[in-house]
Amino acid sequence: MKCQSCSNPATVHLTDIVDGKKRVTHLCQGCAEKQHLLKNSDLNLSAIVTMLGPNLNLPGEDLSRLTCPVCGIKYMEFKAEGRLGCPYDYQVFRAALEPLLLRIHRTLRHVGKTATHALANATREAEIVQLRQQLRTAIEAEAYEEAARLRDLLRQKEKTDEPG
């Protein structure tokens, strides 16, 4: 779609409803800035999380201690960066993310497309995650023989599941 003021590609799409009539405007970034239509163009997920932080119904201290056991990202890193480290962060940070996702997307359930290879690998990935968690637990409990067994099993599982 092209800008209504010039021939550049439109990146800003505004919809106004006045007296029950819908008016759509398509502009490029430059024309939108010239018309002072962009009030805060650098609003991102990180800024939204920062704004909603007090409304997440979790004490700040508990949020700061949340860490994903799979990728190791901390909630505070996500809050600063605005990016999650892996798909399992949605489970780990669920209590903090649900209100945010509801406010942004108005739903908690993904309704878009999913890559076909992701569906095929979901069970395998779940097994690997479970093995990693068991390995961490064994190491923390200083059960080194069990940890070695789990490590070997994990290596074998990861090696056999690698694409050829």
Tell me briefly what this model is.
The protein has 164 residues and is mainly alpha-helical.
Percent strand equals 5-15%
Low-pLDDT regions: none
Topology order in helix (H) and strand (E) letters: EEHHHHHHHH
Domain module count: 3
Fraction of helical residues: 40-55%
- What is the gyration radius calculated from CA atoms? 23 Å
In one word, what is the shape?
elongated
Give the tally of β-strands: 2
What is the SS-derived class?
Answer: mainly alpha
Overall average residue pLDDT: 78
Reading side by side through the largest sheet, how are the strands ordered? 1-2
Question: What's the total helix number?
Answer: 8
Q: Largest sheet, described in full?
A: 2 strands, antiparallel
Alpha carbon gap, first and last residue: 42 Å
